[in-house]
Design brief:
The chain has about 230 residues and is an alpha+beta fold. It is built from three helices and twelve strands, in the order E-E-H-E-E-E-E-E-H-E-E-E-E-E-H.
């Protein structure tokens, strides 16, 4: 039986191969990584189903495999964690919905490009539920929106695969404190800013974001299972 951290709500439909876990408390980053590591092993051994884990972290920075030291502008502002995912520096904190995605790509075609594109489309469909036009940008990871004649990032993507099972995932800015991005060059891109649903004038609760995420996930991924 998978270990369930305190303060979490499990949603599991026995007719659904994917388990959804929705956090109702802030989760420490190291605790989340440890739980993901355990779940990947359990999925591989057949002892647990695939998992989508929605949560919030305390304010922190994570450094992906491509992070450059010069992009950490204020190293003492928040804790900095080396992340096993791809990408560069990013911020996590309250008001941002992190979605950790533990899916078995052995059942989903082992197509990394398609998987990342589906994650992008997931964010685009989620944003569409709030009337926001999220877009891809060539050469830039994540999802972007036009705001005040500028391109600003609203969703980040950083994943890792082990034995073709994914972990880490995506993050959507619902209503975080955007000034906290000031301690880093987000994703190594200094010429563009970041935004959120709240910054776009959209008042959305985390529960509403979760509902949109779940509906959009099945819209994008329903045909990707074996």
């Amino acid at each position: 039986m998978p270990r369930i951290p305190q303060g979490f709500v499990l949603e599991h439909n026995m007719n659904d191969a994917i388990e959804w876990r929705i956090g109702d408390q802030i989760v420490a980053y190291d605790d989340a990584v440890g739980e993901m590591e355990r779940r990947v092993a359990q999925i591989r051994s057949g002892d647990a189903p695939e998992l989508i884990w929605l949560l919030e972290h305390p304010p922190l920075y994570t450094a992906g495999s491509s992070a450059r030291a010069e992009d950490l502008l204020e190293p003492d502002r928040f804790p900095v964690h080396a992340a096993g995912r791809g990408g560069e520096y990013t911020y996590h904190g309250p008001g941002q919905r992190v979605a950790y995605v533990m899916l078995d790509l052995n059942r989903r075609g082992r197509d990394v490009r398609l998987f990342v594109r589906n994650l992008e489309q997931w964010m685009i469909e989620t944003l569409a539920a709030f009337g926001v036009a999220g877009e891809r940008r060539e050469g830039r990871v994540g999802i972007w929106v036009e705001q005040e004649e500028q391109e600003r990032k609203i969703a980040a993507i950083g994943v890792r695969l082990r034995h073709w099972i994914s972990f880490h995932g995506v993050s959507l800015n619902v209503a975080p404190d955007l000034t906290h991005y000031g301690g880093i060059v987000p994703c190594g891109i200094s010429e563009h800013g970041v935004t959120s649903l709240a910054d776009l004038g959209i008042s959305a609760s985390m529960e509403q974001a979760d509902d949109a995420l779940k509906k959009a996930f099945y819209k994008v991924f329903e045909d990707q299972s074996a």
